[in-house]
């Protein structure tokens, strides 16, 4: 566990930088976190982050495919918004735990 | 089973029969459905309960055996038997495609137009490969230089190809999660390493393992062990590769972020999806898996529907061993439901998989919803212990024995000397 400061707030994060308490999240924090990894958050980014948070709330396992079918972005678009590991990066910026696949 | 609709004579029979039998209907006579039919028939009174099982195919495939076909270890005849041989007397076997489940009315329509009614339904329609879902996969290189070993035909074609192949780039790629038997692709590349070594051309064969996962496997400790194993065998791992399409001209797989990996021969694990009957019946999620209570194994939506095997959306492996452990829990809960008691048995997601690693060795992993695969030993009375996450000869024999156990014990719904719920005995805690 570690603590990080974003937008004047102290948040608890895992060793890999994922939020421990998703409730700590807000858009300002997301913007600062994104800047750290070289992403400038647009409305589209935020729409994805909010979708991820909603899905997380419902307890649904998240997959790239599911986000691609959300109607917000297709999979290609998701890769463009969050280059590298789109689901991992977007989950981190959305303040939710690291996505896991269940074997 | 009472059929209504077009068979007037059967309706007549039913009217003549004053005793109304209660009905259990099982959809799918694969690993899970067959096991359940055997278990239930042993216990339920024949004068009270009618058990019917429906499948569109007459042949039962021992799917774990598909892995060995490309390398000539097994042939087609080693993995097939008639389904009917495994259905016990007193269970009615119907061969037809299931067209639709009308869950609100507790009835099932078959493709031949007949209708089956049920008191309890067990969905065991499994999962299947859908190469059509990936652009460029089923195109001019399909089954010429692109093969799938998840179907018997694909595995047989690949055997023919490997026999005459003189080397080059062999790429194994996993399209999408989840797919059944998560360790099979790792076993495939290990066996390929052994096969080409024995053929004396390993130096001419470049083996690459491509996965959408962040590493060779899902969970950290097993990933570490398996990554070391693959590195030892000089098998490259390309993680985080999310396959978008196959470029037939360039002979390359292409990811959504436009990475390309060229191949001379591609072995693909196509997208896996539940059968389309689930979609037609409005019973599935976006990959046609049935939302199922992960502990009770009952449908989240209908009290008289249970789901067993790969057809369920459970957060554990899609594997025969899981279906076997789950069957005992489902059986108990179905009995409770029939007797109007609360469903007390709780499935823990127990999976137990032998990993064939080539050169007569194997590894074993054992895990559940909450506990990732750990090293240690696995106690199996009389035979074991097997080394967990260790590459040993005894584990290989475990896998070889599995085929015999599958036909003679598993399918017939008999008990294995393994507890359905995972045990921590023999496991070493790490951290
Ligand atoms: C290459 C490979 C290796 C594997 N290795 C292992 C292993 O080592 N260990 C292990 O535990 N598991 C292994 N598995 C997985 C194992 O085979 C499956 O998990 C298991 O067979 C699942 O059983 P099931 O009954 O849910 O599905 P299946 O056995 O696939 O049965 C589903 C049945 O439903 C029928 N069906 C589907 N839709 C319809 C319809 N609309 N109408 C009528 N009938 C329908 C099908 O014809 C089929 O007979 C492996 C699988 C593969 C492909």
From TrEMBL, chain A:
Q: Record's Gene3D superfamilies?
A: 3.30.1420.10, DsrC-like protein, C-terminal domain
Q: Which UniProt keywords apply?
A: Cytoplasm
Pfam families, per database record: DsrC
Q: Which GO terms describe its biological process?
A: tRNA wobble position uridine thiolation
Entry's localization field = Cytoplasm
Q: Which GO terms describe its molecular function?
A: sulfur carrier activity
User: What is the protein's major site of localization?
Assistant: cytoplasm
**Active-site residues from the entry:** 102
Q: Which family does it belong to?
A: Belongs to the DsrC/TusE family.
Protein name per its UniProtKB record:
Sulfurtransferase TusE
Its lineage reads: Bacteria, Pseudomonadati, Bacteroidota, Bacteroidia, Marinilabiliales
From TrEMBL, chain B:
What InterPro entries does the record tag this protein with?
A: FAD/NAD-bd_sf, FAD/NAD-binding_dom, SQRD
Gene Ontology molecular function, alphabetical: oxidoreductase activity
Q: Which Gene3D superfamilies match?
A: FAD/NAD(P)-binding domain
UniProt domain FAD/NAD(P)-binding: residue ranges:
23-142
Specify the protein name.
Answer: Sulfide:quinone oxidoreductase
């Amino acid at each position: 566990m570690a603590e990080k400061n974003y937008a004047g707030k102290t948040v608890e994060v895992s060793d890999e930088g994922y939020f421990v308490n998703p409730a700590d999240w807000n858009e300002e924090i997301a913007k600062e976190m994104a800047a750290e990894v070289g992403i400038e958050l647009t409305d589209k980014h935020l729409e994805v982050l909010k979708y991820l948070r909603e899905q997380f709330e419902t307890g649904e396992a998240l997959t790239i495919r599911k986000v691609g079918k959300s109607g917000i972005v297709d999979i290609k678009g998701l890769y463009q918004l969050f280059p590298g590991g789109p689901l991992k990066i977007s989950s981190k910026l959305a303040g939710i735990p690291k996505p896991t696949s269940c074997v | 089973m009472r059929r209504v609709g077009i068979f007037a004579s059967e309706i007549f029979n039913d009217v003549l029969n004053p005793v109304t039998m209660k009905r259990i209907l099982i959809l799918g006579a694969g690993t899970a459905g067959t096991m359940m039919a055997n278990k239930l028939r042993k216990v339920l009174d024949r004068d009270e309960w009618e058990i019917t099982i429906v499948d569109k195919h007459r042949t039962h495939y021992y799917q774990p055996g598909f892995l060995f076909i490309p390398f000539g270890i097994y042939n087609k005849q080693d993995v097939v038997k008639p389904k009917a041989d495994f259905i016990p007397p007193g269970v009615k076997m119907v061969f037809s495609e299931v067209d639709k489940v009308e869950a609100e009315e507790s009835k099932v329509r078959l493709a031949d137009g007949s209708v089956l009614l049920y008191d309890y339904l067990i969905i065991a329609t499994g999962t299947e490969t859908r190469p059509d879902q990936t652009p460029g996969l089923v195109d001019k290189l399909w089954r010429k230089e692109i093969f799938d070993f998840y179907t018997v035909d694909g595995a047989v074609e690949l055997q023919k190809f490997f026999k005459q192949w003189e080397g080059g780039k062999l790429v194994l790629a996993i399209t999408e999660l989840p797919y059944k038997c998560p360790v099979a692709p790792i076993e495939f590349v290990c066996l390929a390493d052994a096969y080409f070594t024995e053929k004396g051309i390993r130096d001419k064969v470049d083996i690459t393992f491509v996965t959408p996962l962040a590493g060779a496997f899902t969970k950290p400790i097993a990933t570490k062990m398996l990554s070391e194993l693959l590195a030892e065998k000089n098998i490259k791992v390309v993680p985080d590769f999310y396959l978008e399409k196959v470029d037939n001209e360039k002979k390359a797989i292409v990811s959504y972020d436009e990475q390309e990996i060229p191949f001379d021969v591609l072995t693909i694990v196509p997208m896996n999806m539940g059968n389309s009957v689930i979609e037609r019946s409005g019973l599935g999620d976006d990959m046609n898996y049935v939302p199922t209570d992960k502990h009770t194994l009952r449908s989240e939506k209908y009290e008289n529907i249970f789901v067993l095997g790969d057809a369920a959306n459970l957060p554990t492996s899609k594997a025969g061993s899981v279906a076997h452990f789950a069957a005992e829990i489902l059986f108990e809960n179905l009995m409770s439901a029939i007797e109007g008691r609360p469903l007390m048995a709780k499935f823990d997601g127990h999976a137990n998989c032998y990993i064939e690693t080539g050169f007569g060795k194997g590894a074993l992993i054992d895990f559940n919803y909450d506990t990732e695969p750990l090293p240690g030993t696995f106690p199996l009375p009389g035979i074991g212990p097997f080394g967990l996450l260790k590459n040993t000869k005894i584990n290989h024999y475990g896998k070889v024995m599995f085929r015999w156990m599958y036909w003679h014990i598993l399918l017939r719904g008999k008990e294995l000397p393994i507890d359905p719920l995972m045990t921590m005995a023999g496991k070493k805690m790490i951290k």
